[in-house]
Amino acid sequence: MKPYISIIIPAYNEENKIKDTLEGIIGINEINEVVVVDDGSSDNTAQIASQVKSEKVKVFKLDKNSGKGYALNYGLKISMKNADIIGFLDGDLGSCSSEVKKLIEPILKEDADVIIAKFPPAKKKGGLGFVKGLAKDSVLQMTGVELDATLSGQRLFKKEVLEKFKEMPYGYGVEVGMTIDILKYGYKIKEVLVNMTHSETGRDLKGFIHRGKQYYHIKKVLRQKKKEWR
Question: Are 65 and 39 in contact (CB under 8 A)?
Fold first, then answer.
């Protein structure tokens, strides 16, 4: 019997990308369900997602913007009912969402318990790499495992891994915190190179503010994890 695969897509104001993101994955035979959680968008994200013609797609709209972690937890309540494998994908991937096929194959082959998408290098200069460096070095320091894509939100999990978590962590440190916990629990993570791109933050004020928040949230999560895994 084939594993039931559910993909959760948290989306906030992605009316320009959500249609292409969904159409990139609905034709993948291994995927049984796509749960779109509109995180209180002020645009037409939910409406456009609902117009995609596929029985796989289920769209839920939250009353207010509560953040990616909240949206993922909401989606998990739905996906965990039937799924054997659960994936997280961002809503701004566009048609390159089809690259998720490269993550599905190794998890079906039991190569690892969690598969993380490793993106090609960014096309435009963003920050100074300090956020990525902090995440990578911290995971290595705490687990002894060196990973390049610790910040990647494109992931596939065996259900049993997610059952270890009462809920997803909140804030920008969600991926780093989960990665540390997963490795500490003894599960295997594999990174797979994909040809994916999504909205990149630049070297403008907005970009630096975003990276500052990331850095703060990651440091906060790390302090918490060091206490938990003494």
Answer: yes
Q: Which residue has the tokens 């906060």?
A: 220
pTM comes to 0.90
Q: Which two tokens stand for residue 17?
A: 């990308």
| 182: enclosing H helix or E strand | helix 174-184
Number of residues that make up the chain: 230
Q: What does the block give as tokens for 78?
A: 């739905």
Q: How many CA atoms lie within 13 A of 50 on its CB side?
A: 9
Q: What is the pLDDT of residues 199-228, one digit of tens each?
A: 665 556 666 776 788 888 888 888 889 899
Q: Which two tokens stand for residue 184?
A: 């500490």
Q: How far apart are CA 38 and CA 159, in angstroms?
A: 23
Helix (H/G/I), strand (E/B), else coil: 57:
strand
| Secondary structure (3-state) at 227 | helix
Asked whether 194 and 145 are in contact (CB, 8 A), the reply is no
From CA 227, how far away is CA 230, in angstroms rounded?
6
Domain 5-228: give its CATH code: 3.90.550.10
| pLDDT, tens only, 175-194 | 898 999 999 999 999 999 99
Name the token pair of 173: 């440190």
Per residue in 156-181, pLDDT tens? Answer: 999 999 999 887 766 778 889 899 99
- Sorted by where each begins, the domain ranges of the chain are 5-228
What is the C-alpha to C-alpha distance for residues 118 and 32, in angstroms, rounded to an integer? 24
In order of 10, 37, 63, 210, the CA distances from 67 in angstroms are: 9, 11, 12, 14
- Dihedral (CA of 143, 111, 171, 184) sign: negative
